[in-house]
Amino acid sequence: MLDRTSLVLTIIGGINWLLVGLFRFDLVAYLFGGQAATVSRVIYTVVGIASLWCISLLFRQRVPVEE
């Protein structure tokens, strides 16, 4: 559950950065009152923590699922 939640948050953060890169539009800042707003900073922090958790996905052993 934590892996999927972290992955979804990381994807959302990636989409936000895509918008920043292509259009100079920060969706999180737009929705929550600017980059310095407390809610925006909390969202940026949660997405950052989720991305750190996703690093662990790269180094885990994969166990095949039996049907």
Could you outline the blueprint of secondary structure elements for this entry?
Layout lengths: L1 H22 L3 H6 L5 H21 L9
Helix pairs in contact: 1-3
In total, the number of domains comes to: 1
The pLDDT mean sits at 92
What share of residues is helical? over 70%
Shape: elongated
The main β sheet shows up as: none
Tally of alpha and pi helices:
3
- End-to-end C-alpha gap: 21 Å
Radius of gyration: 15 Å
Strand content: under 5%
Structural overview:
Helix content is 73%, strand content 0%. It is mainly alpha-helical and 67 residues long. The chain has one domain (2-58). The two termini are 21 Å apart. 7% of the residues are buried. The mean pLDDT is 92.
Short structural summary:
This protein has 67 residues and is an all-alpha fold. The protein has one domain.
Task: List key phrases describing it.
mainly alpha
